Amino acid sequence: MRRGEVWWAELAPPAGRRPVLLLSRNSVYTARTRLTVAPLTRTIRTIPSEVRLGAEDGMASECVADLDDILTIRRPRLIRQITTLSEERMAEVDRAILFALDITV
């Protein structure tokens, strides 16, 4: 597991099974059982806290990573890997996180 991977995860209702983007730093994946993720959704609002993903990213349908809805889940909730995002796409994710949390650098 590495930051930038997209996995199927079993989330609490009402979300249920859905893709999530791994956001934790890489050293967390071997040391901790709780991981920070962003859920993916097909509800696209076109706001700066979303990052659009599609076939070029390895996704079956167009969706967004919703960085306004970052959550922490237990590692056993991850089911299987879908894809790994490019460094360029992860740079967009980083900018969306800064926007979502109102962090100015």
Which percent range fits the helix content?
Answer: 10-25%
The whole-angstrom Rg is 13 Å
CATH class: Mainly Beta
The global form is globular
Biggest sheet architecture: 7 strands, antiparallel
Proportion in β-strands: 35-45%
Structurally, how many domains make up the residues?
1
- Total strands: the figure is 7
- Structural class of the helix and strand makeup? alpha+beta
For the record, give the distance between the C-alpha atoms at the N and C termini, rounded to a whole number.
Answer: 28 Å
Pattern of helices and strands: EEHEEEEEH
Average pLDDT over all residues? 96
Outline the low-pLDDT stretches: none
What CATH calls the topology is SH3 type barrels
Describe this structure in words.
The protein has a single domain (5-100), classed as SH3 type barrels (Roll), CATH 2.30.30.110. It contains two helices and seven strands. The chain has helices at 28-31, 87-100, and strands at 5-10, 17-22, 34-41, 50-53, 63-66, 71-74, 78-84. β1 (5-10) and β2 form a beta hairpin. The longest helix is centred in the C-terminal third of the chain and has 14 residues, at 87-100. The model has no long low-confidence stretch (mean pLDDT 96).
Layout of helices and strands:
Layout: E1 5-10, E2 17-22, H1 28-31, E3 34-41, E4 50-53, E5 63-66, E6 71-74, E7 78-84, H2 87-100
Antiparallel strand pairs: 1-2, 1-7, 2-3, 3-5, 3-6, 4-5
